[in-house]
Each structure stands twice: as C-alpha cells, then as structure tokens.
Amino acid sequence: MQEQQPSSTTSTQAKRWTTRELLAWTTNFLKERSVESPRTLAEMLLSSVFQCERLRLYMEVDREASVEELSTLRALVVRAGRMEPIQYLLGHWTFHGREYEVAPCTLIPRPETELLVDEALRWTRAAIAQGALGGDFRVVDVGSGTGCIAISFVAGARGLFRAVPGSKISGCQPLGGAGVAPSIRREVKVEGVCADGDADVRAESGGASTRSPSIALRAFACDIVPAAVELAKRNATRHGVDHAIDFRVSDLFSAYAAHEQFDLILSNPPYIADTEWATLDANVRHYEPASALRGGVDGLTVVRELLAQGAQRLRPGALLLMEIGWKQGDAVRALAETSGAFATVAVLRDGNGNDRILRATRA
User: Fold this and answer.
1) Which terminus of the chain has fewer CB atoms gathered within 10 Å of its CB, N or C?
2) Looking at the whole model, is its pTM more than 0.70?
3) What does each C-alpha distance from 84 to 292, 315, 347 come to in angstroms?
4) What is the tally of helices (H) and strands (E) in the chain?
5) 123-168: per-residue pLDDT in tens?
6) Between 3.40.50.1360, 3.40.50.150, 3.30.1840.10, 3.20.20.140, what CATH number should domain 106-362 receive?
7) Each residue of 210-241: pLDDT tens digit?
8) φ, ψ for residue 55 (rounded to 5)?
9) What's the distance, Cα to Cα, between the start and end of the chain in Å?
C-alpha cells in the first residue's frame, strides 16, 4: 500500500491482508508521514474501499481484502501520505446534513460556512413572518463551488415558498417559475432578526405563521470555474433541486443582466491574504484551488468588489451575507459602512468566537 510493499509482504498473491492488518499498517504508514489523525483516516479510507460503515471494520476484523480492493487502497494511501485532503480521496463530504461530491476544482465545504446558511434561513423566515416580501424571492450564491450553500438554502427553505418545477425534495410543491404573475412588492426593511430565541431553521417545514405559498422562490448560483459549475449541477441533481437552481458560469455578476436584482446574496469569496498563504496547512495550499482561497495582498480584493457590485444588485431592504476571515471583521465592517449603501452592518461570530459572517442590509 505504498510505492513499495511492507517488508513482510513479497507480493499481493503471497499474503492475504485482513481488515485488522490493513488498519494497523495504514495507520502506521500515515503516522510515519506526520499525517494528522492517522487512525481516523485509515478507517475512512478502508471503509470507503470496502463500501461499508466504519463500525463494520471492527465487526469483521478478519475479513480478507480482494486483490482489487488492495490495489484501490494502495493508491489512496499513497495519496494520503502526500497530504492530499481526505475529502478529495473519498470524493465526497458532508455539509449542513447532506453529502456533496467534491473535487480539486472546488473548495472543500467547511462547517463554519454552515453559519451562513443558518443565518440566511433565519432572515428569510423572519421576512416572511413580517410580511416584508412580495412577488418572487430571488437569492443568488456567488462563487458557489460545490453548490452546497445554494442547495442547502433551497432545501432548508422548502415549505416557505412555492416549489420550483421539477423539484424532487420530499414535501415540495411545484415552485412558481416563468408565467407566475408577481405581486406588488412591499418596501419593508427587515432587520433585527438574529435574536437568540429564533426557531431552529434546520427544521424542514415552517409553521403557518412563516409559510407564504404566494411567494415564488427563484434561486441562482454562479462560479467563475466551469468545472465547478458542472459539479454543483451534479450535486443539485443528487439532492433533487436541479430544476430549482439556475447555475451559471460567471465572474461575480457578469452573467446576469444589468437590471437583475436580488433579495438575498450569499457568498463565500476568496479572502486569504498573501501574507497568510504560507501559514496554511500544506494540504490546503497544495491541493485546494488557490482561486477560491487567495484574496490578494490584504485578502479583501474580491470582498471589496462583491460589496460594490452587491450594493447595486440588492433590492431595498435586501440582505448580503458573506463569509470573511477570522481577523477581518473590523476591516470588512468599515468597508460596508463607509460605502453608504447599507442601512445596517454587523459581523457574526462562529462557534469558536471568531469573526465569520458579514451581515449587511441594503438601505
């Protein structure tokens, strides 16, 4: 299971490797190469090759691997020893309770980004409850990568809107699309909806007070990398929302008509400063796409542009939610406030107490 077999093995045919032996050898191989959490990674790789739950590895410790399984495992372990992220080795990762295909063309979904989805759903639920929406509700995920943000929002918002034609999410009704006459939009600003007492927005259906079947949800997602857009489309199909989201190849808003505006803009843009790049883990620097991570000298090159363009793309009272770096809260807040485009600006912290999400309401 490396470029050279362990010294105790002369050939694949000469020795049959059991689960117990494979776990022990893979763990040692990764440990010797200073790979973090070697035992956990060994379990994940072996369970992936055997196509079973990790617990079953310990229920069948004497199970012998086939020649094909050994070959597959060997290739994966070699890659893991070179610090390639486990997410790319497995080809999938979990975000907001759903599994997504991942590949080197996209950023690996992180748990911190789930806060952005949670806040988006909280705000949307409150906006509907306050009667602040009318006609179609337009949301866009800028720099969508795997599509996990847009897909999680659409899936989490089911029951709040009419459903999109072709949506296969359980409990959805066909969402209004073209041909649905929009109602008159009420110019009501929705603010102060982040109260600690808000209901858990991960609940898959809303109560009568927060459901608005008269409003149509129109969701969009875009990325500058064509391969990422294709991957996101596959993820949308996997979760039954492929007809619910309009995916586009776009540099920020370049693929949208000049007059198009939105009620909600979501984004996890590149925000790593050049001075921080060398401090990142090798598996991030060497394998994840730099275009999705590096944000220029101070990390705010794309953030500035997104704030400027986003201000023009938001309807009055609409919301921009953007993930930022853990030390960028003051700088990003100042950029948003000095622009004069936003009525309220706040920075939300993640579970570790770090700055994580810019929350800006259009004036």
Assistant:
1) C
2) yes
3) 17, 42, 33
4) 12, 9
5) 999 999 998 887 789 999 999 999 999 999 999 998 888 654 445 5
6) 3.40.50.150
7) 666 678 899 999 999 999 999 999 999 999 99
8) -60, -35
9) 59
